[in-house]
Design goal:
LacI family transcriptional regulator (chains A, B), DNA-binding, 14 helices, Rossmann fold, 3 domains, homodimer, transcription (chains A, B)
Chain lengths: ~350, ~350
Amino acid sequence: MRRKITLKDIARELEVSISTVSKALKNSEEIGRDTKEKVQAFAKLYNYKPNNIAISLKNKYTKNIGVIIPDIVHHFFTTVFRGIEKYANSKGYNVIICVSDESFDKEVINMELLANGSIDGFIMSLSAETEEKNDFSHLIEVTNQGIPLVLFDRVTDVINCDKVILNDKEISFSVVQKFIQSGRKNIALVTTDNYFNVSKKRMEGYKSALEHNGIPLNENRILTLPYHDEIEDTQITDFFNSNEIDAVLCVNEIFAIRCMRVVQKMGIKIPEDISFVGFTNGMLSRYASPKLSSIAQHGDKMGEIAAQMLIEKIEREYIEEEDEAYRTEVIEGTLIERESTIN
Amino acid sequence: MRRKITLKDIARELEVSISTVSKALKNSEEIGRDTKEKVQAFAKLYNYKPNNIAISLKNKYTKNIGVIIPDIVHHFFTTVFRGIEKYANSKGYNVIICVSDESFDKEVINMELLANGSIDGFIMSLSAETEEKNDFSHLIEVTNQGIPLVLFDRVTDVINCDKVILNDKEISFSVVQKFIQSGRKNIALVTTDNYFNVSKKRMEGYKSALEHNGIPLNENRILTLPYHDEIEDTQITDFFNSNEIDAVLCVNEIFAIRCMRVVQKMGIKIPEDISFVGFTNGMLSRYASPKLSSIAQHGDKMGEIAAQMLIEKIEREYIEEEDEAYRTEVIEGTLIERESTIN
DNA sequence: AAAAACTACGAAAACGGTTTCGTGTTGATA
DNA sequence: TATCAACACGAAACCGTTTTCGTAGTTTTT
């Protein structure tokens, strides 16, 4: 088992000093031609690679970024992550990922662990529990330490940092608007509990579109489904039985698929009798039958932008520019129309 | 912006030596009661946390494990990853993830980057290109350096290391067997190019089940679809038009869904006229219509076992037990029967 | 009272690099 | 020939820990 070769090894072998080796490998002008060639050749031969940890310790940066997300088995987060990883990699950064599993405690623990020198900055989306508790002291702690932070999708106004979000309210508004323009009046919203910031925003868009068109808000047309627990079909069946509904906006594609199933079993035709639109343009939307019209959240792009903002902040630190201007980047969702809506 | 406090800071402030502080914080017997209390109180007050990087440099381990997978937006890998993350976290390890994007070069680059001190071990699944090229020199390089490696799912016989795989051949065999027992005789296989080890194994199972039942192999009943490029429906349509098929085994759920669609459009009834089973028991299987009977690969479990094997190897290194015994753990797939098969 | 044994702490090396600041040799210049 | 850059390199500090070993000062033993 070959051990990894170090500067010291090279220095000893070539009978020069460690500093000379270090400089020679960086092609420093200080070192003579012959020595440089000799050192470089030797290093290549023995496949010398500098130790990342040592460099990190010396230079105070790790070239790692920490990503904390609530769930990895989730199409949206997964695409965001892909965007982050792609951009970060292109800039020479690695990604350490932690899954909070929607738990406040795990989020805190992971964050503190990584904050102790393992990463140069964070990209995260808040766990459900954190949003519910409204406790962001761990975020404050981290930003106080001067660690850059970018929040995406599940964000909070409490923390002052860079953010990337979807135009949830506006896109919801426009979808409902579209429903109305195509002649639908009895529009339902299927959502999660309101402590999700995004759900709240989407509901705002829904309500405001109704209002904008003079349609009175009917709270009975809003169905709140549990986010993680098993959903019972009966709840959905009851909902559609006791309401005449001709269009539905769902805050995620699973809700949409579930509802479509129930509705189809009741003999209602999609999209002739009822239209469906869901958030999250994932696999399910593409392969449902009928294919689900869906709001693309452009996770890849969100991830890329988040990574870009973060790395910019990280690298600005070194130029010591204390220009604390935080941006909130708004990504525009796009409605991908498929078979579950009429035109 | 509060800077992070170090041992040196505490030592200076309390007018003791750095070593004393270090020992006091570890509750060493060497240090007097009073001093210990003083130091600990001070550390707590200023929220001292040791710097991970410094510890890593000193102790030669990072408590990070590197995961390299071909794709993150993929249900199976995502579940494996969840299993890894969960177990690793419970053991105090962080996970650095790199996506090879099915590219050989990216796999190599990422691996070499991480191998330079950033991680204590690797868990990986080979990229398509790597399997195709059959070039594993980067893996050899890494294991030669003494870095533990666990391969899962997409593995190779060339490398001698711990592995976690599915019983691909056996489970395929048993599914085809089941088809036959339920009276189906014209059984198709929809697969990818054969350089995927798993596809090869699955095909072996398929063929061997036919043989076992005295059914002659008909190569026309094997459809090979491109893995990543867009699939054209026409290819599928032609396949089902020119073959009388009453049961289909697909090596992934996307292929299955695509085929089911085509077949349904042709007016063929599932499962009355034709049965479908796919690998990867993901969202698509659960929400397809009809719901797809599917082989659960137990990604969570694979991930957990892989992480367990890796961490065991990592921590054994310190006990310096050079007992190079590599295991291959075989996970048993289970057929989840839903609506696309008869009983 | 001298020797031995503790007690409580500090100095320093080490991990593997980077970087600043000398310094001994050259060759050119005055 | 004395002076002075330029050149080519080395010594040493530093990043933040851990850990070994040495050692004053005190207590126990004989």
